[in-house]
Structures are given as structure tokens and as C-alpha cells.
């Protein structure tokens, strides 16, 4: 292997850069652009970007819709950033926290000339870094030289696009016995992706027969529900009930997928909770932040199950998308096992919204 980092390694580095507010350089379609995440932007970096050229803001069409800004590129909007605005102006466009208090943010001039391919990649990158989906971009004439001279991560579009859409291979780095309250015969496997992303866990209960459909649960991390016992969702009781059911049956597999907040990360989920306190439901809150309802990659769970030798599942879920994704990844779902536990007064509206808007089965 050469010393130079591969594109997968540079992408992992770029996510770290973006979280720290360090620019990366995107190239493609004969263009080069500096890119910084708005959430991590400092006053000094904004000044340094302005020295390089005109600054543009990329927002998802979801966020643009709330801001009443034109999204000429379909799924995203490119907004011209006036020379006299500061980081606060930009942050207010990225973060809906004070939308209700300050509804008119603008006027916003959307750009329609040229291409949005680098902007699109920039938004995918900041999302994958679990930041607010808002990026600042500046076109520069010599991206390669600029990156080399300033030690910036260079990301050619042709190399990163396939990586941004594929699911990284995962490796079972370690597994060990873990007796649990719900099942004395437990075993925890830690799966680590090759792309430097989140690790995921598989909890095997008993020794499930690989030739038979296994009782399985794909559980997405919910720090608030799983650990703190939040009453706003049903995650904690679902986790407990799934393990208890596997313990009682003597066999099963629970995947604990680190896709907090349906894939947007805990900070963004807390932003969504704050919007929910302003009266928006779980889906509306995601949209106002600029995300889709559900940003999870369900292929990960299917991949882990296959790697563990399972080909058929009895899936504990109320989410039809999980069933569809299992099937499309080549796993047979022989049965959906409903998992209705943990309904509270506080989560009744949340569960009703999931049923009405996200197709959850009651
Ligand atoms: N963005 C966002 N995420 C939430 C909210 N409430 C819970 N979550 C997250 O939603 C996910 C719930 O995951 P799962 O328990 O796998 O749920 P599901 O898709 O409803 O499917 P089943 O439980 O299998 O029926 C977790 O990642 C939670 O952190 C919310 O209001 N906003
Ligand atoms: Zn939850």
C-alpha cells in the first residue's frame, strides 16, 4: 500500500476537517471549490475564504423551502452570500432554532447559472459528518495548488461520489461473551467499518441456527431513549423487550446500529427536539433542519446479518422500510414480529406521526 492516503482515508479525514471548521477542496467538472461547514465556521475562516473569491451557501431544498429561497437545482439551493454579512447571518440560515422569532431572513438570492455538482457533494459530506446540512463554497482557479500549499484535503468528485453512495465494508473486530439480565448466553460483536465511520454492534443471544430464520431486531441508537429512559420515544422499551423476547426464545440477534437520531446524529436530534418544543412534529422538525425524515442506511444491518451467516429473519419491527431493505439486500423476511411497547402520554403524538407520515404499522 502506498504511503499516500486512499480516497476512503481522505474522506474520513475530510469529515474531521469539516467538523473542525477546516476547509476541504472539491474538484470536478473543470471546477475547484473550497468548502467549509457553516456550523463550524469561524470569523477568521470566513475572512480567509473571502480573500479567495465570492462565497456561496449551499442548503438542501428542504431547508430552502422553510426559508422561502428558490432551489433551482432541485434538491438544493445555492445562495449568494453578500460581502457584508457575518457568521451569525450564515448560522441563522443553517440553523432553524430562531426561525419563528426571526421569520424573515434575507432577501436571499439563489444562483441558477453553472453547475451544482460540487455543492451537492459538499452537502452529502457535511451530512455524513453529522453537521447541519449547510456548506459554504468558494470557486478557486487552482484547487490542486491551493490544497497542496495549504495542506488541505483534496477530494476529486469522480473518486468521492462512488464512496459517498456505497456502504463501507464492516469487520467483526472482536466478540466476547456478555451475560445479560435478559439472556445469560449473550455475545457481543463489534463491527468496524473500513471508512473510519461509526462502529456497530451485534448482540447474539444463544447460538442461533444459521439454517433457520433468526429472530432479529435492527435497533438504531437512541441515547435519550435507550440510556436515559426518555419518554419522548419508545426506543428504550423496544430495546429491552426485544432482548427479553430473544432471551425467552433462547436465540436471536439484536443489531445495535449507531445511527443516532435516524442518522442525523445526537446534536441534530436535539435541535429537532427543540423544534418539536416549538410545535413541529418529528418529520417537520427534520425537514426544517434540512434533512430527510430518515437519513439511515439500512443496508448496514443487512450486511452484518449476512456476514454473521444469517440469510432469513423473523424481524421485530413496525417499520415497513426495514422489511423492504432486508429483502432488497437479499435477506428473506419470513415474518414481521410486531414490537409495540413503551407507549406513553408523551410519545403518543410521536408514534401517531410515524404511523401517519412514515408508514409505521400499528
Ligand atoms: N431525528 C429524529 N430521530 C428520532 C426522534 N425520535 C427518535 N429518533 C431516533 O429514531 C430512531 C428510532 O429507531 P428504531 O427504534 O430503529 O425505529 P423505527 O424506524 O421506528 O422502527 P421500529 O422501531 O423497528 O419499528 C433512533 O435512531 C432514535 O434516536 C426524533 O424526533 N427525531
Ligand atoms: Zn428513541
From TrEMBL:
<keyword id="KW-0479">Metal-binding</keyword>
<keyword id="KW-0862">Zinc</keyword>
<feature type="binding site">
    <location>
        <position position="222"/>
    </location>
    <ligand>
        <name>Zn(2+)</name>
    </ligand>
</feature>
<feature type="binding site">
    <location>
        <position position="238"/>
    </location>
    <ligand>
        <name>GTP</name>
    </ligand>
</feature>
<keyword id="KW-0547">Nucleotide-binding</keyword>
<feature type="binding site">
    <location>
        <begin position="260"/>
        <end position="262"/>
    </location>
    <ligand>
        <name>GTP</name>
    </ligand>
</feature>
<dbReference type="GO" id="GO:0009231">
    <property type="term" value="P:riboflavin biosynthetic process"/>
</dbReference>
<dbReference type="InterPro" id="IPR000926">
    <property type="entry name" value="RibA"/>
</dbReference>
<keyword id="KW-0342">GTP-binding</keyword>
<feature type="active site" description="Proton acceptor">
    <location>
        <position position="294"/>
    </location>
</feature>
<dbReference type="GO" id="GO:0003935">
    <property type="term" value="F:GTP cyclohydrolase II activity"/>
</dbReference>
<feature type="binding site">
    <location>
        <position position="235"/>
    </location>
    <ligand>
        <name>Zn(2+)</name>
    </ligand>
</feature>
<comment type="similarity">
    <text>Belongs to the GTP cyclohydrolase II family.</text>
</comment>
<feature type="binding site">
    <location>
        <position position="282"/>
    </location>
    <ligand>
        <name>GTP</name>
    </ligand>
</feature>
<dbReference type="GO" id="GO:0005525">
    <property type="term" value="F:GTP binding"/>
</dbReference>
<dbReference type="InterPro" id="IPR036144">
    <property type="entry name" value="RibA-like_sf"/>
</dbReference>
<protein>
    <recommendedName>
        <fullName>GTP cyclohydrolase-2</fullName>
        <ecNumber>3.5.4.25</ecNumber>
    </recommendedName>
</protein>
<comment type="function">
    <text>Catalyzes the conversion of GTP to 2,5-diamino-6-ribosylamino-4(3H)-pyrimidinone 5'-phosphate (DARP), formate and pyrophosphate.</text>
</comment>
<feature type="active site" description="Nucleophile">
    <location>
        <position position="296"/>
    </location>
</feature>
<feature type="binding site">
    <location>
        <begin position="217"/>
        <end position="221"/>
    </location>
    <ligand>
        <name>GTP</name>
    </ligand>
</feature>
<dbReference type="GO" id="GO:0008270">
    <property type="term" value="F:zinc ion binding"/>
</dbReference>
<dbReference type="InterPro" id="IPR032677">
    <property type="entry name" value="GTP_cyclohydro_II"/>
</dbReference>
<feature type="binding site">
    <location>
        <position position="322"/>
    </location>
    <ligand>
        <name>GTP</name>
    </ligand>
</feature>
<feature type="domain" description="GTP cyclohydrolase II">
    <location>
        <begin position="174"/>
        <end position="338"/>
    </location>
</feature>
<dbReference type="Pfam" id="PF00925">
    <property type="entry name" value="GTP_cyclohydro2"/>
</dbReference>
<dbReference type="GO" id="GO:0005829">
    <property type="term" value="C:cytosol"/>
</dbReference>
<feature type="binding site">
    <location>
        <position position="233"/>
    </location>
    <ligand>
        <name>Zn(2+)</name>
    </ligand>
</feature>
<keyword id="KW-0378">Hydrolase</keyword>
<comment type="pathway">
    <text>Cofactor biosynthesis; riboflavin biosynthesis; 5-amino-6-(D-ribitylamino)uracil from GTP: step 1/4.</text>
</comment>
<keyword id="KW-0686">Riboflavin biosynthesis</keyword>
<feature type="binding site">
    <location>
        <position position="317"/>
    </location>
    <ligand>
        <name>GTP</name>
    </ligand>
</feature>
